[in-house]
Amino acid sequence: MKLEGTYRFNTAQEKVWEVLTNPKHLEKAIPGCEKLEEIEPGKYDATLKIGIAAIKGTYKGMAEVADPQPPDKYRLVVEGGGSPGFVKGEALIELSYQDQRTIVSYQGEGQVGGLIAGVGQRLISGIAKMMLGQFFKQIGKELKSL
Amino acid sequence: MKPCAFEYFDPQSVEEVFKLLDKLGDDAKILAGGQSLLPMINFRLARPEVLIDINKLDELDYIKEENGYICIGALTRERAIEDSELIKSKIPILSEAVKYIAFLPIRNKGTLGGSIAHADPSAELCLMMIALEAQIKIESSQDARWVDAEDFFLTYLTTVIEPHELITEIRMPIPAAETIHSFQSFSRRHGDFAIVSVAVVLEINDDGICEGAKIALGSVNPTPLRVAEAEDMLIGKKLDAKLIEAVANETAEASDPDPDLHSSADYKREMARNFTKKGLMQVLKRFEENA
Questions:
Q1: Domain check: are B167 and B251 in the same one?
Q2: Residue B2, in any domain of the structure
Q3: How many domains does the structure of chain B reveal?
Q4: B32 with B134, same domain?
Q5: Which SS3 state, helix, strand or coil, does residue A124 take?
Q6: Interface test with chain B among A1, A2, A55, by most B beta carbons within 10 Å
């Protein structure tokens, strides 16, 4: 599954970088994230309770802010498994500043496997997009609270 | 697979259901026909701690005409809607659409209330609610409210129903006499979830001028999609091949489908265009045949 998109924020690039890479903000922004614990710099243990309507599952795994080049780009690597299946994803996140706004563009590939991939296949792409939307909306809120 | 353990209740009246929902609503799912819920719990994708089986509530199983509406109880089986002469004569598009729901044994159990509560973006009945501007009655021990279909569906599998609430009735205004409809549904095999479905409901006067238009698509959006821009193109105009082509293009533009195993986003959009065109051509043909 390919995921890509662009979001714009009326905030300085350094601040957006801070919010996008700091686990304190990521924990609040990642939908369903119950815990984000640092194992080593840039690498975190994650517990996510995600789903939609009655279909919910708990996923335990890892998130990594890899190859950081502040404040311009990094690779986000995510991996998690739970009883409904597993999720693996990697995205290149790039920031730039234009017309007094920070532009965040992401380009990623996601893999979903297990039960949700089989039974829920029709809806996965749309739900993934929706969760990304929720993530960036929450990032926007985190930026306002800075 | 078997479901996770759950507590099971078998209420005999709507009041009993409300009492149970007030106490246990946050952990409970309503079990009606079970044709969407049971697969989910058997695969353990959904793990409700409580199931409230409402199949004894005969008072929610009816189809009647009242004050210019067709009123259908939430527990009415899809098969009953399919067989209903009243619906065939007053809202023929609904009669047609129901036949596309999966297979007969599923329609024997599946209910209108259950289908719309589940809110699958490909569901024929969800599309019908939007295309026919239905209203949904949602009740609880405290309150009864009517919600317009366009406000009822929020996103994938999600509606405005609160944990302590129950759908009890759905009503649809009976379309005007000069209404002509078409229902199109495309899937690779009969009974599959639709790749794209299109509902066209037009009011055309004796001069062939379109006075009212409803065009709605299923499976191209998290919820059924009314395409207002396409509808506006038709109002006050005479239906012809050129206009139909333009409206079909507009409809495809308006849809923003997600890809899946069966079809890419581009393919879905292309099918949206083709089947909107097919639907409008069928309406034109039906108009010319009746004239």
A1: no
A2: no
A3: 3
A4: no
A5: helix
A6: A55
CB contact A129 to B (< 8 Å): yes
Restricting to A residues 94-123, those with a Cβ less than 8 Å away from any Cβ of B are 115-116, 119-123
In-domain check, residue B222: yes
Q: Which amino acid is at B156?
A: Y
Backbone angles phi, psi at B52, to 5 degrees: -110, 105
User: Are B226 and B218 within 8 A, CB to CB?
Assistant: no
Q: Which two tokens stand for residue B267?
A: 């393919």
What is the value of pTM for the model shown? 0.92
Q: How many domains does chain A have?
A: 1
Same domain, B77 and B133: yes
Domain that holds residue A139: 2-145
Name the closest residue on chain B to residue A55, using Cα atoms: B46
- What CATH number is associated with residue A44? 3.30.530.20
pLDDT tens string for chain B (291 positions)? 899 999 999 999 999 999 999 999 999 999 999 999 999 999 888 999 999 999 999 999 999 999 999 999 999 999 999 999 999 999 999 999 999 999 999 999 999 999 999 999 999 999 999 999 999 999 999 999 999 999 999 999 999 999 999 999 999 999 998 899 999 999 999 999 999 999 999 999 999 999 999 999 999 999 999 999 999 999 999 999 999 999 999 999 999 898 888 889 999 999 999 999 999 999 999 999 987
Identify whether residues B214 and B138 lie together within a single domain.
Answer: no
Say which CATH number the domain at B265 has: 3.30.390.50
B140 and B215 in a single domain? The answer is: no
Amino acid at B20: L
* CB of B250 closer than 8 Å to CB of B227: yes
Which among A57, A84, A127 has CB closest to B156? A127
B24 lies in which domain range?
7-52
DSSP characters over B67-125: TTEEEEETT-BHHHHHH-HHHHHH-HHHHHHHTTSS-HHHHHH-BHHHHHHHT-TT-HH
Residues B87 and B164 in one domain: yes
> Residues with Cβ < 8 Å from B278, sequence gap 6 or more?
B182, B184, B198
- B21 & B65 share domain: no
Judged by CB atoms closer than 8 Å, whether chains meet at B156 and A53 is answered as yes
* B132 SS3 class: coil
Whole-angstrom distance between the N-terminal and C-terminal Cα of chain A? 33
Give chain A positions within 8 Å (CB) of B156.
52-53, 123, 126-127, 130
Q: Are B82 and B19 contained in the same domain?
A: no
